[in-house]
Fold each of these.
Amino acid sequence: MYHFDYSQARSVQEAVAALAANPDAKFLAGGQSLIATMKLRLASPSALIDITRIPGLAEIGMDGNMLVVGAGARHAQVAQHPEVKRLIPALAEMAGMIGDPQVRALGTLGGSLANDDPAACYPAAVLGLNANVVTHQRKIAADAFFVALYETALAPHELITAVEFPVPERAAYIKFRHPASRFALCGVFVAKFGRQVRVAVTGAGPSVFRADALEAALAADFSALAARRVSIAPDGLNEDLHGSAAYRAHLIPVLAARAVELALTRRAIA
């Protein structure tokens, strides 16, 4: 590791001001991605601004008809929270699939979204549930938030403070995980809101994306059979030593069908 300065922010305003004063600095939450990249010399910020002590940044609760999860909420906290488990069990289950117990104890929702790893789980939940990413300046709709490989709509000095999740009628997440990292080789989040169905895919492309063909098929017939009948083109999908683009294309409707089967086993939210 190399030399860098470290400070603790006590408020969102203090954190943002510290980053504005030093554009070469980085926010530090769980550090599960940032510290690893620093060790590999892929990132070399001159300062880390610890935001884990900011009051209220990890709170979870309802605001009107939205389930609001603070950006500082740890994966384990989301997985175990009674309101998350009651209202959006798919979100709680997804958080419980991330990494290992050490990663879940430290990693945060906001950190995962800001990093936008192409194989991360949270982006699929945010996009699938049509959530709003709340920053200290604005709200960004999920459809506009994820831009490209490790790229989001966040401005250079913008800090995520929370995510607003609409409560779906039914939802489920299924992923085919890498056996070592537990990242998704392919993961599919399916959410049903009345006649609208959203299907978000992670791990298969450069960034999370919606599967339009699956959404149309499931809006017409919300069944596993309808999902399995959909064919996904491999064009533009990831290809590496773990799986070809064609393999990932095959996995998407298979996992979507399993997600639909799981969603149908749950009581629908009125």
Amino acid sequence: MTADRNAKEKAAESEAGFSGKRLLLVEDNMVNLKIAEMILTCAGFAVETAENGQLAVDMVSASEPGDFSAILMDIQMPVMDGYEATRAIRALEKPELAEIPIVALTANTFPEDVEAAREAGMSAHLAKPVDVQGLLSTLQSVHSQR
């Protein structure tokens, strides 16, 4: 099997597994947001976006259980950062909303940053720039844990 064919088959498998799933992508940098949105859409996700943590909290609070299968959360944002937003989502009264997997998507990659994400209640931590296969593997992992 050629590498090109193998890559296409993996992409098709990912798309099939993520088809119909909706993500909330929280990112204040429009270039990063558009790149991540394109990657996620190509993998089969429906993507909603928010440009800061407060908007993300508002969107999750107003959603119904099952609306979002995961949240990709930047850390450094205006209005409300990713840690604050994660803590606010984890504190929501509806467990189905409070327990949505939240993945940190950040340039902050020191061990203390990974620990801070975990302490805030995030399910996983991914470094920017995004490794596409790592992103899809992480999303598959947090979905299978639910």
Amino acid sequence: MRRGLSNSFTSPLAQRWLIALGLSALVHAVLLMEQRPAAGPVVVVAAAAAVLQTRTIAAAPAVRPAVEAVAPLVRPVAPKPRSRQTQAAPILSADPSTVTVPAAADLHYLLRQGGQEGTARLSWQPQAEGGYQLRLERELAGRALPTWRSEGQTGAQGLAPSRYAHQRKGRDASATNFRRDEGVISFSASAEQFALTPGVQDRLSGWLQIAAVIAADPARYPPGSELRLNVVGLRGEAREWVFEVLGLDPVTLADGQSQSPPALHLRRAPLGAYDGGLELWLAPERGYLPVRVMVGQLDGRGWELLLLNDQ
């Protein structure tokens, strides 16, 4: 019986049957691998000739999805506070080589502003020791307007202001300080600071500086010429004033009938949104002090000074 079974497995027909069975098992194993996830080792049956053999195939490790790169968190950094640096005021285009400071004077004017009239007084007092006091006092319709006051020194380049202030009721309401020992210009109404350059003026001393420069050499300023100087205000502004010389014009005085000798007419263009320009008429016979002044302001507060005929 055993020999009969052995012969039946070794016959050609039986061997072909075993090979077919092995190939069928292999195909089914492959199909099962494609349809089910790899959860563990898969057993594959291999047929070789007449002997069935098995081998273990390790499952492929699961592949993790790629992790997207995350940009590092950027936190805003507060800017470091900057230390205030002294700014340089605009460079003066041409320092005067010689000046002729006007003699002491006390001039009275008719003041016109906003359809009203009043009076004004320009007091110029150079001092023997080289200092000066300059004041412009105004009164309109019986009420006092802020007084402009400039003080400082006079020298080879004209006026060198040390303090400029607007006064109310006899007290400085705001001021500009020319700190010459430190080389700095500072303001009571602003934290700005400027380097103090030669020849820089305040808004009132600039009138007298122009007079001193022209008086030293009138022929240098014919009609069509320009005169430039640096001027600082009260609130941290520094600008270059550029005056165009228009020529000699007669000026009708405050009574409407008398005329002064021809005065040198200068015009400065507006500086900004609230500045309507500045015009000066300077009298040669008075050391080029102004006989007429027009201060333009685009907000309707412009005003005019006109020398009274009793001067």
